[in-house]
TrEMBL record:
GO MF annotation list: ATP binding; ATP hydrolysis activity; flippase activity; magnesium ion binding
Compartments reported by the entry: Endomembrane system; Membrane
Gene3D superfamilies: Calcium-transporting ATPase, cytoplasmic domain N, Calcium-transporting ATPase, cytoplasmic transduction domain A, HAD superfamily/HAD-like
Source species of the chain: Canna indica
Similarity comment: Belongs to the cation transport ATPase (P-type) (TC 3.A.3) family. Type IV subfamily.
Binding site for ATP: 437-439, 547, 595, 618, 652, 732-734, 842, 848, 871-872
Protein name per the record: Phospholipid-transporting ATPase
Length: 1237
């Protein structure tokens, strides 16, 4: 709907033309509005009425009855997943979405039928325990959310009732209510700001709950509503708000306020969002616009996209393989049953009326029914407790290990690492590509004004870290520049040039342009001053560190911005009229054309005290240069040269320009600006179009250069990650020169690399851009990009085959836009994957996400994105793993991430230590689960051949039920938590170890096949050794052993062996390993002593009554218990020995190198951190340093071969392993010499 449409709306709403509106009653106004809303919300199509949602909402302030018909949402908020009625059905639905749980439900149902050989309790008990644990966890988490909701919904707020303020809980607020919020209070809903105790109707708010930014923001009420502050005046407020429907856009709002027939445009400046808090204001009054789940913050509170790890998806394939194995076993047994069943076996009594399952007359039915019988019998092959165990392991890994790691604790900001999800721990151990933002991620985001160019003259004598790095690469040595007496190094300002400091600019060639430069810095911004109005004590609250640095620079140059009102800024100017003269000047701010990522510039229209009208503009060089007039070509050329110099030095640049305005031109433009600002449709687009009308024919003043230093430890971290086989890409919005130099500074690119640069700054593209035809420009750029990609790809393949040289790709955003075209992206992907490092410059947030998705989906590699700002959110959510830096740009990146850290360098610990440990541990947990369940089920399978394939069970029902839940449950969890192949320090010392995770060495089908082979071998030993040995055995009363004696003996051997096998799989053995394994074996004996010693009627337990006592009275039991585990584990022992000796993994080589070193942490290692610990933390740290059992590496204590190949791989040289080195090395061993004390 256009502007005229809204005029018709207002006319209809107000009951006629504007003059009559003032005399129209509220009732008629309401009726007209309702009729209009009904008309506008219907579309007639083929004679039928199709209801459609209205494009706007109408709110009557201070009139609850009028708002009843609209049925707005209540202000009560619920963040829970369940309620009392939905908890059980919804919770069970969530659990049975897992294939394994659904499978066991089917098995449990089957076990209640007559064809089941086992009691239903065998399957129901484990399933019930798993579901109970999961539901209790869900209920506990939801209960905490419920308690939080109650606390929030019960928060008191003052609401206008009649002419008095009454305190009510938040949940009772309604749309249209007028509320009062006191200082430091939170806004209970989205409010229209009406009035405040501050002069000029302003208030200050903090939005940290929305975006994490703690700097204060200013909001200004409409001048027409300033009087509605006291309750008697506020009661007279009967405005009507027409605004957009609820949406999740935090930074936009479109609406109008109609008050006494006057229509006033509303903007985000008048809207106070729920969750923000009031600061530096005694109290304010507002009208409720959106409530409850329709508030902007609640509409943004959707969860982070659900991510599943690659290992979990591969686990699904393993479960599917087990299903196939189960089906094959059942099919063999079913066919065997159909073939075996025959009346010739007279002793089976298959004559007369026989059950269908054993009726030889219908062998097909026998086969089908036996199939179902065996499915229930072999159901233990699928490990039901696997998912619960993995969840528990991952949760503890996050809560105890990642979140509490002192190596990832940042002392200065008091920020620990934070795992926001436990689903992706092992994914951290397989990352091959890292996509990183630059500003605030690789750099500190602490901006310092360092250099500038004014009127074609460059100022600033400092040398940046990047320039020093460049000189070192070229073998030059830069002499330190002696700082002058006028040099100042303050927060946000690190500048040295006596020519323009302390008023010296008055002596420059063109002092007037210097004056414009400093005034532009002091006036063109949205910074809020706080504290005393003195240069030493004032602090600036800015939307970005760049803004603050520029205003600080103006202060040090003698143009001190110290006060802001909604319509003006006050600047204390020094040395303007004459040296030493100081005067306070007030500049009226008539319009602010705000910065956004599309415009890439900010402008203000200001009026001098003498009436002069000036537009000041600052922004990116590409944007400003497009809008310059044809004058001052020399300044343009010189400034562009300076921009390139500053960019090469790694500095962030902005251009400054201005334009003189006449009153006539301004007034005509301002009318259009006000119309655009009042528009309810496409307001942002119309404002941008109006801005274009005045932001032209600008006069260039100069440019600023701000230094953003690298974070501590970034170069070392990137070098370590590169050695680990991880490829790092930098995606930044900076200029190409700046990005390349930052890449050099942090060891991402070096002179040994072959660099491919694809840029839009070519003569052909510039020529096309000068003509101005967008179709021609697009064609030229696309052809150029296509040609460059093909050329670079051919060169890259030559270099890789001939020189084996590292490659680097640098591409700018304009070229990237065309390179991501479906026809070109294949070549882009091939070229990118050939390169060790990739730098993308001038890229938008959307392009960051597109590049990440290209590698994730196109190359099927595991990706990690890391960033610190709102512009990195899409990239973070697009990658397999998203990491947020809790830096200076708010918390939006952290809130969208899976893991949060304070510094880029902590990636080393997160990936190489915790990621690698999680991956290796979970691989062992999954394969061990697979092994122990397959071993147990195969013993039952071999017994089926001895029973005519009848489905007779080998084990007692309770043995089968508790095998996974008690007798083998705890040790595998301990393995997943505490197993450690190498220490954290060694994992970082030998980053090449991480490559095993990238190649997925520990969870391949070959690894699964080895475990399956030994499960097959051990099951044969358990069954045939125990059955063969018991044939001639007898108990003390002379009776031969029966089925339950043999099966109990076999089950004892299984429990002992699988627990001991886990001990062999451990790389480090702690007291927890010993306790869990011995405790599990002991639990079996305690259970069987009690279970076989007590007999109850009406159950099947009489089968094993007194069995263990009979068995333990024989020599056979002890001999079998000694020999069977030894024979069963002999194959594993030999395999592990041969593998470690002849085909060692890299971590095993490192173990052998450092096998004589006692693992421990030196006290000096945490000295710096220790000095900043709280008393409780210091006590915990002191306890951790007490002497205790140290982890010992298990395995063979001899020199492993592969030393040469391992160290050669570190040096980048291929040296294949030689297995015969073992004998030579073993024969040359000499006793270790002890050093004299």
């Amino acid at each position: 709907m256009n502007g005229k449409g809204w005029d018709r709306v207002r006319t209809a709403r107000l009951g006629g033309d504007g003059a009559a509106a003032g005399t129209t009653g509220i009732g008629s106004r309401r009726t007209g509005s309702v009729q209009l809303r009904q008309m506008s919300s219907q579309t007639v199509r083929l004679g039928r009425v199709q209801p459609q949602a209205p494009s706007h909402r109408t709110i009557y302030c201070n009139d609850r009855d009028a708002n009843l018909m609209a049925r707005f949402k209540v202000n009560s908020v619920s963040t829970t997943k369940y309620n009392v009625l939905t908890f059980l059905p919804k919770g069970l639905f969530e659990q049975f979405r897992r294939v394994a749980n659904l499978y066991f439900l089917m098995i449990s149902i089957l076990s209640t039928t007559p064809i089941s050989p086992v009691s239903p309790i065998t399957n129901v008990i484990p399933l019930s325990l798993v579901l109970l644990v999961s539901l209790i966890k869900e209920a506990f988490e939801d209960w905490k959310r419920f308690q939080n909701d109650i606390a929030i919904n019960s928060t008191p707020v003052d609401v206008l009732q009649g002419q008095n303020w009454e305190t009510v809980p938040w949940r009772k607020l309604q749309v249209g209510d007028v509320v009062r919020i006191k200082q430091d209070g939170f806004f209970p809903a989205d409010l229209l700001f009406l009035a405040s105790t501050n002069p000029d109707g302003v208030c200050y708010i903090e939005t940290s709950n929305l975006d994490g930014e703690t700097n204060l923001k200013i909001r200004k009420a409409l001048e027409r509503t300033w009087d509605f502050l006291l309750p008697d005046k506020a009661a007279e407020f009967k405005g009507e708000i027409q605004c957009e429907q609820p949406n999740n856009s935090l930074y936009t709002f479109t609406g109008n306020l109609i008050i006494e027939s006057q229509t006033l445009p509303l903007s985000p400046n008048q809207i106070l969002l729920r969750g923000c808090s009031l600061r530096n204001t005694e109290y304010m009054v507002g009208a409720v616009v959106f409530t409850g789940h329709e508030t902007k913050v609640m509409m943004n509170s959707m969860s982070v996209p659900s991510k599943r790890s690659t290992l979990e998806r591969k686990l699904d394939k393993l479960i599917l393989a087990l299903f196939c194995g189960l089906f094959l076993m059942c099919l063999i047994g079913a066919i065997g049953s159909g073939v075996f069943i025959d009346r010739k076996y007279y002793y089976l009594g298959l004559f007369g009326n026989v059950e269908d399952q054993f009726n030889p007359s219908n062998r097909f039915v026998v086969t089908i029914l036996t199939m179902f019988t065996l499915i229930t019998l072999y159901s233990t092959i699928i490990p039901i407790s696997l998912y619960v165990s993995i969840e528990m392991i991952k949760f503890i890994q996050c809560a105890q290990f990642i979140n509490k790691d002192l190596h990832m604790y940042h002392v200065e900001s008091d920020t620990p690492a934070l795992a926001r999800t436990s689903n992706l721990n092992e994914e951290l151990g397989q990352v091959e590509y890292i996509f990183s933002d630059k500003t605030g991620t690789l750099t500190r985001n602490l901006m310092e004004f360092f250099k500038c160019s004014i009127g074609g003259e460059a100022y600033g004598t400092g040398i940046t870290e990047i320039e020093k790095g460049q000189a070192e690469r070229l073998g030059k040595k830069l002499d330190e520049v002696k700082r002058s007496d006028t040099a100042i190094h303050d927060k946000g300002f690190n500048f040295d040039d006596a020519r323009i400091m302390r008023g010296a600019w008055r002596n420059e060639r063109d002092p007037e342009i210097c004056k414009e430069f400093f005034r532009c810095l002091a006036v063109c911004h949205t910074v809020l001053p706080e504290g005393d109005e003195s240069p030493e004590k004032i602090t600036y609250q800015a939307a970005s560190p760049d803004e603050s640095a520029l205003v600080n620079a103006a202060k040090h140059f003698g143009f001190f911005f110290f006060r802001r009102t909604p319509t003006s800024v006050m600047v204390r100017e020094s040395h303007v009229e004459k040296m030493g003269n100081i005067q306070d000047v007030s500049y009226d701010i008539l319009n602010v054309l705000e910065f956004n990522s599309t415009r890439k510039r900010q402008s203000v229209v200001c009026r001098y005290p003498n009436g002069r009208l000036v537009l000041y503009c600052k922004g990116a060089d590409t944007v400003i240069y497009e809008r310059l007039g044809d004058t001052n070509q020399d300044i343009k050329r010189l400034t562009r040269e300076h921009l390139e110099q500053f960019g090469s030095a790694g500095l962030r640049t902005l251009c400054l320009a201005y334009k003189e305005l006449s009153m006539d031109v301004y007034e005509k433009w301002n009318e259009k600006f006000i119309q655009a600002k009042s528009s309810l449709r496409d307001r942002e687009k119309k404002l941008d179009e109006v801005a274009e009308m005045i932001e032209n024919d600008l006069i260039l003043i100069g440019c600023t250069a701000i230094e953003d230093k690298l974070q501590e430890g970034v170069p070392a971290c990137i070098e370590t990650l590169s050695r680990a086989g991880i490829k790092i890409w930098v995606l930044t919005g900076d200029k190409m020169e700046t990005a390349i130099n930052i890449a050099y500074a942090c060891n991402l690119i070096n002179n040994d690399m072959k660099q491919f640069i694809i840029t839009s700054e070519t003569d052909a593209i510039r020529e096309a851009e000068d003509k101005g035809d967008p179709v021609e420009i697009a064609r030229v750029i696309k052809e150029s990009v296509n040609h460059d990609l093909k050329r670079c790809l051919e060169e890259a393949q030559q270099y890789l085959h001939i020189a084996a040289q590292s490659l680097a790709l640098v591409i700018d955003g304009k070229c990237l836009m065309y390179a991501l075209d479906p026809n070109l992206r294949v070549n882009l992907l091939k070229l990118s994957l050939s390169c060790t490092s990739v730098v993308c410059c001038r890229v938008s947030p959307l392009q960051k996400a597109q590049v990440t998705s290209l590698v994730k989906k196109g190359a099927r590699k595991i990706t990690l994105s890391i960033g610190d700002g709102a512009n990195d959110v899409s990239m973070i959510q697009a990658a397999h793993v998203g990491v947020g830096i809790s830096g200076l740009e708010g918390m939006q990146a952290v809130m969208a991430s899976d893991f949060a850290i304070a510094q880029f360098r902590f990636l080393t610990d997160l990936l190489l230590v915790h990621g690698r440990w999680s991956y290796t541990r979970l691989c062992k947990v999954i394969t061990y689960f697979f092994y122990k369940n397959l071993t147990f089920t195969l013993t039952q399978f071999w017994f089926t051949f001895q029973t005519g394939f009848s489905g007779q069970r080998f084990y007692d029902d309770w043995f089968q039920s508790l095998y996974n839940v008690i007798f083998t449950a705890l040790p595998v969890i301990i393995l997943g938590l505490f197993d450690k192949d190498v220490s954290a320090s060694l994992a970082k010392k030998y980053p090449e170890l991480y490559k095993e995770g990238i190649k997925n060495v520990f969870f391949r089908w070959g690894v699964v096949a080895v475990w399956a082979f030994f499960a097959f071998y051990q099951s044969l030993i358990f069954f045939y050794f125990t059955t063969a040995a018991s044939r001639n055995g007898h108990n003390s009363s002379g009776k031969i052993f029966g089925l339950w004696d043999v099966s109990t003996m076999a089950f004892t051997c299984v429990v002992v062996t699988v627990n001991l096998r886990l001990l062999m799989a451990c790389n480090s053995i702690t007291r927890w390993h010993s306790l869990s394994i011995s405790g599990s074996i002991l639990a079996w004996f305690v259970f069987i002593f009690i279970y076989s010693g007590v007999m109850t009627p009406h159950d099947r337990q009489e089968n094993v009554f007194f069995v263990i006592y009979v068995l333990m009275s024989t020599f056979f039991f002890y001999l079998t218990l000694l020999l069977v585990p030894i024979v069963a584990l002999l194959g594993d022992f030999l395999y592990l020995g041969v593998q470690r000796w002849f085909f060692p993994h890299n971590y095993q080589i490192v173990q052998e190198i450092h096998r004589d070193e006692v693992e421990g942490i030196s006290r000096t290692e945490f000295l710096e951190i220790g000095n900043h610990l709280t008393p409780d933390e210091a006590r915990s740290y002191a306890i951790s340093q007490l002497p205790r059992e140290t982890s010992k590496h298990t395995g063979f204590a001899f020199d492993s071969p592969g030393y040469e190949s391992f160290f050669a791989s570190q040096a980048g040289v291929l040296a294949p392993q030689k297995s015969w080195d073992v004998a030579r090395r073993a024969s040359m061993r000499t006793s270790k010499k002890t050093s004299p004390k």
